[in-house]
Amino acid sequence: MAKSFMQMAKEAMAQVEGISAEVAQQRLKQDPNALLVDLRDAAEIPSTGLATGGLNISLGMLPVRADQELPEEWRDSRLQDRSRQIITTCQVGPNGAIGAKLLKDMGFTSVCYLEGGMEAWKAAGLPTD
């Protein structure tokens, strides 16, 4: 049976941890190796900005950048440690959840998504670039 985008997002949200912007900021401060990955297309970033220290990789490219078997020049070195704490985000949350589940399916052991996405981050007054 075919699934809608929101059905896929709800399934992902049920399988990965969602955290608030404040908890995400706290985790990023406590773990200098933690990484916030913004899954929006680059054209979407100006609407809220990119979280300070965040990495922008579009959702479509995430499985390529996080793969360990593709040619090295296609990968992102920051996504090669499967035990690294990763927090995914998007504009409002669903794509962040889908991306977090994708990473979990790829073997990442410490992955969660930002509930409310970058709109929640911005509303909490957290730093952006």
Spell out the key features of this protein.
alpha/beta; single chain; 129 residues; five-stranded parallel sheet
Lay out the secondary structure.
Layout: H1 5-15, E1 17-19, H2 21-30, E2 35-38, E3 55-56, H3 62-66, E4 86-89, H4 94-105, E5 111-114, H5 117-123
Parallel strand pairs: 1-5, 2-3, 2-4, 4-5
Return residue spans where pLDDT drops below 50 for at least 5 consecutive residues. none
Q: Gap between N and C termini, in Å?
A: 42 Å
User: By helix and strand content, what is the structural category?
Assistant: alpha/beta
Largest sheet: 5 strands, parallel
Q: Provide the β-strand percentage band.
A: 5-15%
Q: State Rg.
A: 14 Å
Treating each run of at least 4 consecutive H or I residues as one helix, how many helices? Answer: 5
Helix content: 25-40%
Instruction: Please give the order of strands in the largest beta sheet.
Output: 1-5-4-2-3
Number of distinct beta strands: 5
Shape: globular
**Element string (H = helix, E = strand):** HEHEEHEHEH
Please state the average pLDDT score: 96
Structure at a glance:
With 129 residues, the chain is of the alpha/beta class.
Commentary on this structure:
There is one protein chain. It is built from 5 helices and 5 strands; from the N terminus they run H-E-H-E-E-H-E-H-E-H. With 129 residues, it is α/β, with parallel strands linked by helices. It has a 5-stranded parallel sheet with strand order 1-5-4-2-3. The N and C termini lie far apart (42 Å).
